Amino acid sequence: MSKSTKRSTRRPQGVATRQQVDLLITKHWIRMLVWQIAMSKCLLSSSSSEHSMSLLFPIGISKHLRELIASVSKQDIEVHGSGIQQKLFELTDTIASVVLTVPASSLEEKRQRVDDFNFLFRFWKSLPRPNSVQQELLEGKHSRIAGIEL
Fold first, then answer.
1. What InterPro entries does this protein map onto (predicted)?
2. Which residue intervals of the chain are DSSP H helices?
């Protein structure tokens, strides 16, 4: 595991699980916002040595989010209400866009990307009272991703 991967998945010590979940999801959300700003300024590259400046950065985030969500109870996430739900929507939406637009280097990588997105999409949809406009947007991307040949 690379140093950046270890830093992304490491949980803060001395903090309750529910607080850790909020901190880690918020950290990924902020990192994704910075990535989106870099993308809007054409600063990203498919061959960047700095992972956060790569077009594939959201794919790494999707893996970390899936691992995090799978390792805690749903209540540990739901307790944070609509704010965390909004962050998860924005993360999942960006991940879907990358899955749809940035080619995978192998069939295995393509499958993993689709699996990670599907996991995040299903989880987000299972949260209480998902926003109908957001749900429609993600369902549209989900349908397009389902059409990707594996």
1. Carb_Metab_Trans_Reg (IPR050797)
2. 3-9, 17-40, 57-71, 74-78, 81-101, 107-126, 132-146
The residue behind tokens 């529910």 is 18
3-class secondary structure, 45 = strand
User: What is the full per-residue pLDDT of the chain (150 aa) written as tens digits?
Assistant: 345 444 555 666 767 899 999 999 999 999 999 999 999 999 998 888 888 999 999 999 999 999 999 999 999 999 999 999 999 999 999 999 999 999 999 999 999 999 999 999 999 999 998 899 999 999 999 999 999 887
Q: Count other C-beta atoms under 10 Å from residue 61's C-beta.
A: 25
